[in-house]
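Complex record, two chains
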Amino acid sequence: MRWLGDGALDHLREVASEPDLAGTPYEIVGTIGQGGMGTVYLARDRDLDREVALKVVQLPDDDDGRMLREARILARLEHPGIVPVHDVGVLPDGRAWYVMKRVRGSRLDEHARTLSLPDRLRVFERICEAVAFAHAHGVIHRDLKPENVMVGPFGEVLVMDWGVAKIGPHPPAPSPSSPTPSQGEGETAKTTEAMRAGEGRWRPSPSEGVGEVGEGSGVRAPAPSPPARGRGLGRGGTGSIPGVRAPATAHGTILGTPGYMAPEQERGEVERIDERTDVYALGAILAFLMEGEEPVPRPLEAIRSRAMAAEPEDRYPNVRDLSADLGRYLDGLPVAAYRESLMERAQRVFRRYRVPILLVLAYLLMRALLILILGR
Amino acid sequence: MFPSTRRSVLLAARDADPEVRRQALGALIDSYWKPVYKYLRVQHRAEGDEARDLTQSFFALALEKGTFDRYDPVKARFRTFLRVCLDGFAANERKAALRQKRGGGAALLSLDFEGAEAELDRSPSSDLTPEEYFHREWVRALFAHAVERLRASCEDRPARFLLFERYDLEEPGERPTYADLGRELGMTAVQVTNDLAAARREFRRLVLEELRALTGSDAEFRAEARDVLGVDPP
């Protein structure tokens, strides 16, 4: 019997736990991160000869559909602040996977330390833009926190981990280029059915294009070769996926992160979760970004406080209003969340128009001096 | 070595048919004797002869008294149960010097202790807890069995096992590149990737099959699969 050293043992455990991607154009390069929801691998797309992030979710048996939901939601939210999904499928062991753009950069909780307060607030505005876009398409994130925001090397801000997102009554419609022919229940059922039938992969974004380029072009694993894009891709008997129509969170189930969850979310009141739930989490992110600032400007604190109000009715009604108020603060304008005193208004106006005010004062001083000198 | 079915050997060890029982206990001993021996050598600091006698006596007594029948999968994993039994057994044996009473080290089972000793020499000394040490050696024995079964299953595709052996069974610093392996075996890098993936897939299947056989319940099987491979089995 062959001796297995500790190094070989560790290696075998690692490769044996890697997702079985035979029949796909992906090969695992390494592990990017591991969390409660699953593992994100660094993978290489042989067809397109590029690195991608491949997420495999580890969920209870009855909850695999959440993974596909996340992929479907992401695929339809085409926004620079939302990480794009390239591909999705099911492993032979029943776990679902999807391929995203590989995001380089750092998480906001790490990145924020390197930024000044105004820069942190500008990043916050970008987060608000992405979340507002999602809300406009009927998607509530429900797990917004600094760890779920990536900041790229060129300052690009990406909101990640839409795995516990809630789809509202008006889910995002598929883009014209999407392979899904229609939207709503019928389309969902169709996709689910396709997955059930063992059609293990679905490329939601054919606009990505798959050419016969790069190393290994056109060569597949020994399993029946799937076409490079579109649905109806042959992966025999890879297990079924529960329907993706039902929301991932049943009534009373708590999903989210303590400290960033709105009170109604903590209480599991799913029917009360709406845009304002994300507004609360954004307020908590704002509080995180203000940490260490002494003293905290009152208007800014008022914005945070209103965003994090215990009752949804007392919060900003939507993310756009929160973002607009923050924008007014950054522009030196009065914010809706705070009624300033006369003195504070004067100080704000002075800060905002410091240069012209100083110029006028200097001019007046010169005039006064001239009058004084010439008057003698 | 293992029953071809996925039936648990722990359940088969209680079967009414003596032949089924004998085969199941044989499979159990086959999987556990080496971790038991190494555990006695390293954690109980038993000398070679003493560890051999204790290993033999432990399994002989377990067969005689039906120790493994007392295992309840609801209370603990089998490997934990076995290790706790072993700890108690070793302490009692030493205290009462039962080794002599049992025949002074007469070989009861045909076990390759020299091979286990050679493995001990190659194992680095570690600061693992007794539980961690036993677990690691148990995984080593489990994987070694799966590798041998993989070798047998690749008889008609020797290149596939050779790839697996040359790449996945080597220590990290000694691993060739896919391109090197491809040149050596006259394969493209993609073929190397695909054959290696197939071998790993089969290896994982065999490990899960062995785990299924060595556990007493579905919950224990899933917990062990998650611990050993980090996966939820289908």
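Note: DSSP finds eleven helices and eleven strands in chain A.
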